[in-house]
């Protein structure tokens, strides 16, 4: 709207200048050479300014058609709560549902939005994807890559790219000794791969395009098979390694938690049990970022795919010992995280236990790094868990309030 | 606000300013000399006539342009950026030239000598300018890539040993044409004709003298990270070396200096470092090696450039070269590898990630950690150095790259192609090491056969699979074949 108004203004100015110029020329008097000089100057100036204006206008108007390259940011759509129901791609999404969601239907209903917000809570509680146990004992997981409408914060949805219809994708939780077969189906318009970040898998399973296996083509699929070794214990994550600057920020990532003891697998589909007996509560926060409104630096900062106020909030009992797994899944940005009222102890980095756990107030986390932090909920109250980078604490064009981005609440009761 | 918008805005504003000047440009328009125009401008500025000449239209346009810049960014703006950027840079150059002419004229009348470097476009943008695409022969480009490999293999500059035993290194800072990728040649600045500068290596107890010769158009100086040297050798800008002058940085290596350090320009740092004025200084113990267990030593100096008249760093290099020209590390399976990483980017942090391995951080800024920390992503701040080690027990080609994912792209490449801060560690399989009774190894070898099975079976479903992939997975089944294949490829 603003842009159109400005163009209209410029057009007005433009016409006014043309009229002025014509007037100037017509008022020339052949017998007054001095005045003639001055007027010619003004004509020249007019022409120059008009050229600038014209080139500006031409480039502005011709730009939408000249978009040969895809921009590395997500197209965002109108979030209308009154729109028609969108079929949310679920874990069992088929080809037809994924192609439907790439269409023009970008509206999300209230229930769909709530479902998405609930999925962020489930991920925080580490509810993992249930595998199919094959006859030979192999655990088979299915990851369907597709596009869908994803809501970030009130009034803002984007075209999400993700696994099993969510951002982040489904949590994969396995135990040392498991034979794992992860079937990745590509329902995107672009090739993709899955890289198991932090897992020492065989070279052919590493998920780097062309090294040695090519990327998974649209409508193709690939079986990533490996054995879970002791090295893999801890918090890790997976992400696409094809066109990764775009695809990771679009949502093509998820978490992997590898447990040492098989006992924790007993009831993994409902409630997660801590990996270690030294903790009562085990939670996961994936710190993400994305680009909306055509911005080039990342401008929406998320926890489990959602920006505040849609970020999942944590409820813990006073006295509980909490293990909080943090993953920086942002393609480009470092993050610094703090929990007000508490000192955090970093106990593991990239899944590897630290020789000397480190006590900090602010946790600095590099892109693709994972950190396990621990704290004991000694102080009751509602505490902010938030980024200390102030620019990450607001949502772009969110007029409702000035809070947003990478923040949430930890309720200790 | 994106860079492109900035350029467009600047272009528009400069056009307006140009227009304002042109209002007073009678003499120039009528074929007279530039200086007369300037004098007239000064005269008109003194007289009241000047006020009447202030163009309302131009000011209105200026305000409009400012409004346009402050508009929320639109994806299409970036498209127009390139076309308008050309226009704006040309107008910047014109303004710069006229301003320079005006300034030099004033200076001559007042007898003031200006020490400023000549105004050119690179004085306005911090980045490097493009060089001619044919400026370098194929052989010259290969020599540059070889220099990057030599640096990775820690080939150091041979010092001249003076009569008193001082080891003298000579670094000549001079402009050069540097090939980055494909057709991209830039007008960089380097030490001894290379980016990164040559590796300087000395032992504890040595007295070293680094002669810095300045063949640049502006002053420069040397600074060192992570070592305590005499204050007058610190390379503070007050001691900067004028063009065509030289300076000797002389100091004695003490035992606290052992480890990986860097040297770099400390004058006009943002510009000079990102033009290529950085290098690595390795200090060895008096006797023996710093890491006696390492079979393979590799050195990576991370650098960056600002190309295409952008404002932020957009080309990232290992030893001066972005992928695919970055040096590739070749390792035999079972070897113990020590990698030294130096961040010589002027502005950016980097998060280096190695595929397929968990490595140990053993030293930071040359200081050894009491307890090495295991990880797979190491964050390196500007001027920071880290030493990491791992045992290469998993064969294959493993990516080593920065996980800030816009650092692994070259600016005008396709989105899908990799570039920038990335290379491969090629671990060649050997027969003897694969039979080691190692826990992870046994699972790995059983895995490799499994993986080849799976890729074979998925072949049928995937039409696009090349025969190459099946070849390499088959070769990983029998490590003997694999070795010979890799050796052939290496040759």
Automatic annotation (TrEMBL), chain A:
Q: Does the keyword rRNA-binding apply?
A: no
Which keywords does UniProt give here?
A: Copper, Membrane, Metal-binding, Oxidoreductase, Transmembrane, Transmembrane helix
User: Low complexity composition bias: which ranges?
Assistant: 77-105
Protein name per UniProt:
FtsP/CotA-like multicopper oxidase with cupredoxin domain
Occurrences of domain Plastocyanin-like (ranges): 153-261, 297-397
Q: Which CDD domains does the record associate with it?
A: CuRO_1_2dMco_1, CuRO_D2_2dMcoN_like
Matching entries from Gene3D superfamilies are given as:
Cupredoxins - blue copper proteins
Q: Where is this region: Disordered?
A: 64-105
A Pfam family reported for this protein in Swiss-Prot or TrEMBL: Cu-oxidase_3
InterPro entries in UniProt: Cu-oxidase-like_N, Cu-oxidase_2nd, Cu-oxidase_fam, Cupredoxin
Q: Which residues cross the membrane?
A: 40-58
């Amino acid at each position: 709207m603003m842009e159109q108004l400005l163009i209209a203004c410029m057009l007005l100015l433009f016409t006014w200048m043309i009229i002025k110029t014509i007037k100037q020329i017509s008022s020339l008097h052949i017998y007054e050479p001095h005045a003639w000089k001055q007027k010619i100057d003004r004509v020249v100036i007019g022409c120059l300014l008009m050229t600038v204006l014209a080139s500006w206008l031409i480039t502005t108007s011709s730009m939408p058609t000249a978009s040969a390259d895809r921009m590395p940011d997500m197209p965002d759509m109108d979030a209308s709560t009154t729109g028609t129901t969108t079929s949310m791609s679920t874990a069992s999404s088929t080809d037809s549902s994924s192609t439907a969601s790439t269409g023009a239907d970008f509206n999300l209903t209230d229930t769909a939005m709530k479902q998405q917000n609930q999925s962020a809570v489930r991920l925080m509680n580490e509810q993992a994807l249930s595998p199919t146990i094959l006859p030979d004992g192999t655990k088979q997981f299915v990851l369907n890559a597709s596009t869908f409408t994803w809501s970030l914060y009130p009034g803002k949805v984007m075209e999400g790219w993700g696994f099993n219809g969510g951002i982040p994708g489904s949590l994969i939780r396995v135990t040392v000794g498991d034979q794992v077969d992860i079937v990745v189906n590509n329902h995107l318009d672009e090739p993709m791969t899955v890289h198991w970040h932090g897992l020492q898998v065989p070279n052919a399973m590493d998920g780097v395009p062309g090294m040695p296996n090519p990327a998974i083509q649209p409508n193709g699929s690939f079986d990533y098979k490996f054995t879970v070794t002791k090295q893999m214990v801890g918090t890790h994550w997976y992400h696409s390694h094809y066109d990764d600057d775009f695809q990771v920020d679009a949502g093509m990532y998820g978490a992997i938690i590898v447990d040492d003891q098989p006992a924790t697998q007993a009831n993994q589909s409902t409630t997660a049990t801590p990996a270690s007996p030294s903790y009562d509560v085990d939670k996961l926060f994936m710190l993400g970022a994305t680009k909306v409104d055509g911005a080039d630096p990342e401008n929406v900062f998320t926890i489990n795919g959602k920006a505040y106020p849609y970020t999942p909030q944590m409820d813990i009992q006073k006295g509980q010992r909490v293990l909080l797994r943090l993953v920086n899944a942002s393609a480009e940005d470092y993050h610094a995280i703090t929990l007000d009222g508490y000192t955090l102890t970093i106990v593991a980095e990239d899944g590897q236990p630290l020789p000397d756990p480190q006590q900090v107030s602010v946790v600095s986390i590099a892109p693709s790094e994972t950190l396990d932090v621990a704290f004991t909920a000694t102080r009751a109250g509602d505490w902010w868990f938030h980024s200390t980078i102030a620019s990450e604490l607001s949502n772009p064009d969110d007029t409702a309030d000035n809070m947003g981005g990478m923040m949430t609440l930890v309720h200790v009761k | 606000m994106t860079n492109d918008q900035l350029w467009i805005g600047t272009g528009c504003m400069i056009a307006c300013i140009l227009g304002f000047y042109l209002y007073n440009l009678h003499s120039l328009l009528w074929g007279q000399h530039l200086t007369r125009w300037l004098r007239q401008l000064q005269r008109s500025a003194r007289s009241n006539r000047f006020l009447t000449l202030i163009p309302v239209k131009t000011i209105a346009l200026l305000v409009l342009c400012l409004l346009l810049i402050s508009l929320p960014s639109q994806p299409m703006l970036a498209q127009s950026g390139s076309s308008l950027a050309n226009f704006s840079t040309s107008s910047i150059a014109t303004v710069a030239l006229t301003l320079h002419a005006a300034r030099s004229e004033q200076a001559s009348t007042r007898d003031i000598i200006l020490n400023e470097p000549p105004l050119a476009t690179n004085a306005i943008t911090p980045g490097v300018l493009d060089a001619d695409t044919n400026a370098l022969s194929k052989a010259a480009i290969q020599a540059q890539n070889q220099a990057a490999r030599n640096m990775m293999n820690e080939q150091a500059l041979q010092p001249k040993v003076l009569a008193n035993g001082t080891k003298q290194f000579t670094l000549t800072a001079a402009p050069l044409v540097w090939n980055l990728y494909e057709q991209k040649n830039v007008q960089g600045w380097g030490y001894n004709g290379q980016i990164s500068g040559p590796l300087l290596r000395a032992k504890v107890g040595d007295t070293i003298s680094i002669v810095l010769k300045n063949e640049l158009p502006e002053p420069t100086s040397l600074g060192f990270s992570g070592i305590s040297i005499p204050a007058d050798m610190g390379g503070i800008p007050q001691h900067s070396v004028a063009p065509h002058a030289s300076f000797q940085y002389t100091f004695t290596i003490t035992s606290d200096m052992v480890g990986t350090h860097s040297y770099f320009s400390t004058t006009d740092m943002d510009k000079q470092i990102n033009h290529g004025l950085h290098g690595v200084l390795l200090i060895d113990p008096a006797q023996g090696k710093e890491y006696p267990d390492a079979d393979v030593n590799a050195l990576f100096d991370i650098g960056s450039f600002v190309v295409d008249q952008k404002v932020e760093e957009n080309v990232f290099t290992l030893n001066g070269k972005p992928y695919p020209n970055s040096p590739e590390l070749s390792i035999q399976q079972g070897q113990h590898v020590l990698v030294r990483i130096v961040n010589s980017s002027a502005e950016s942090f980097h998060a280096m990630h190695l595929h397929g391995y968990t490595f140990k951080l053993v030293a930071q800024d040359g200081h050894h950690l009491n307890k090495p920390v295991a990880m797979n992503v190491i964050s390196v701040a500007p001027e920071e150095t880290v030493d990491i080690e791992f045992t290469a027990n998993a064969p294959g080609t493993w990516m080593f790259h920065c996980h800030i994912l816009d650092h692994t792209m070259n600016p005008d490449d396709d989105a899908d192609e990799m570039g920038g801060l990335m290379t491969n560690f090629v671990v060649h399989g050997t027969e003897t090491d694969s039979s080691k009774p190692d826990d992870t190894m046994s699972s790995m070898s059983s895995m490799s056969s499994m993986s080849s099975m799976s890729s074979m079976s998925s072949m049928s479903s995937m039409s696009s699979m090349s025969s190459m992939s099946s070849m390499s997975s088959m070769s990983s089944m029998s490590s003997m074949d694999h070795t010979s294949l890799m050796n052939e490829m290496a040759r």
